[in-house]
Amino acid sequence: MTDYGHEPQFGVFITPDAGQADAVLELSKLADLVGLDLVTFQDHPYQGRFLDAWTLLAVVAAQTTNVRVAPNVVNLPLRPPVVLARSVATLDILSGGRVELGLGAGAFWDGIAALGGRKLTPGQSVDALAEAIDVIRASWNADGGSIRHEGEHYRIVGAHPGPAPAHEVEIWLGAYKRRMLALTGSKADGWLPSQSYLELADLPTMNAAIDRAAEEAGRQPADVRRLLNVNGSFGTGAGFLEGAPRDWAEQLSELTLTTGMSVYILAASSAEDIQRFAEEVAPAVRELVTGGRAAGTERPAPASVAAAAPEAAPFAVTPTPDDGQRLSDEQPWDETTRPTGPPPDPSRRYTPAQQAAGRHLIDVHDALRRELTQLRDLIEQVARGEAEAATARSFITRMTIRQNHWTLGTFCETYCRVVTQHHTLEDRSVFPHIQRSDPALAPVIERLEEEHETIADLLERVDQALVALVASQDDGVDGVQQAIGVLNDALLSHFSYEERELIEPLARLGFY
User: What is the pTM of this model?
Assistant: First the structure.
């Protein structure tokens, strides 16, 4: 039995189908909203029906807040390592350190050759990958000297390094055979195989090969994170990832405790599967792994994790205040009747992970606040009689929307769905957990749930006002402005109240 002590993480592997581009983005944003750790895409440049991986990763990073993005995995023969390194670093900087790098030696060589790439033998492809890792890391060392690499597959003579990524980007290798496993142990930060290309019974043997190579390179086996692309279907089957969410959780937690696999990336094509994976499977796996580790012998944390672990500190997350400004005289509720929870214990200390849990709610709300501002701006454009959306903010530009009426309808459809998903997640999962864990917060939770119902009605009112506007060419924009004003006031007030009452309990109690 081998457990490397890494905390479980969860992500999705979404097919980058160009014919379903809107759905790809919606699923990616949902993964961020429900609290998953990763959104990943395959990279097959010779596949004409797929979106380009790096362009897609950049758009997803721009439209999400917390989730990390990664290629799964980069087709190295068609991505020159210095250029790839700069693409990774640039996106990492622009996304606030939310990029990791999955690398592959190459496959589908006829397709690679058709695009002008070199057709390598299996041995050559592993050698080329080993060289590329060195070149990529040298490129990220912005303070180092000129990059000079005289290899069999790459020759870099005096290239300037940089930019440096915003954080230490991890390099994960998709590896199965002896030399690739050895390369993973000696040079990579993670191992990223796929369930469909291996037998689960072979994981201990493959892990052992990685461990030996790590030790021979002077590293600790736990320095290599173990990831796994998984596929399954929620149902009543008895096989691996074929049963109910609880069955999935038991199987994945057992895999973590016995083989050390700790990052599970689900091939997903539906919102329902992503939500069940995030809301039911992931928290149960974390709970089972924590319990299993507590019941077993104490395992040392990975050296890289232990060295960087800061001490607990006083709670330092500040809720967003309500400035009291209102766009409408219509009030959806009486704010003076809102209950409050018990004050936090001033002597309590919180780990960095707990502080981050409190911050997560504010991050989600901030994204919704930005979109609400954009929606108000669009309403103003319509009120001024502007026919084009060229001056709309970056979100609308990225959606390439042109007609104002259609812009408003589509934007509100997307925004209303995101708000509804956020509140549904809270009502079904987060709120019951908090109420069970701290009964003194029950009145606050009940009030928040009531406000969610009111907000749902206000979103429907905006939808109806937009339908009326599209159906007529008169001054119907006044009705939309009034509906948006009430929605704006309600949401901003609600977000501030929720943060004031819940960010400390979320840090103390967690999301599940």
Answer: 0.65
